[in-house]
Specification:
By secondary structure, the protein is mostly helical. The chain is built from eight helices and no strands. The longest helix is centred in the C-terminal third of the chain and has 34 residues.
Amino acid sequence: MASSRGQEETEKLIENSRAQLSRLLTQLQDCEDLKEDLDPEEYEETRADTLQQLREFQNTLTRMTSGDNTLVSQLGSVQLAIQAAVSEAFKTPEVIKLFAKKEPGQLRDRLEELKTAVKLQKCTRESMLGQAVEILVALRQLGETLSPQEENFLAEHKTREMDGFEKASSDLGKTGVNAVLSVAGNQVRAAQGD
């Protein structure tokens, strides 16, 4: 036991962090899925409570990573996924999950589904615009090349929150983003297995 030098404890802490993130993202997704069934005040209260829990979780991880460098890369990846949710750069939990799973193909499929939904009047243009921006930012962060039309669309519709998220993720650097996406992707896959 003594020879592990905290390795087992570190692995357990990372596992618990992933489980906590999974729970909070699932809670956020459930809130979005049940939006129509909840009255507006109840929806806002539940969503705000979940985002507050994510902020508290992020603060805890920040304190932990500032004191223990062995946890920095693993917990930093969880932090990026939390940052995406908390900063409200990504308002769609489905997009957060696809981003975390590093699924550019599925993100592009979702973008096409949104375009079709607008044409069939199954969703509003405003709703489509918000999700389309999230998807394009996620694709860019995954290293995908955007078409000139997509770049123009993004420049025209990107929010301040998205700019902040892109800056924060670029500050992490390519290695940090890859570590974050790897951990977040594992966390999402584990959550789906539950």
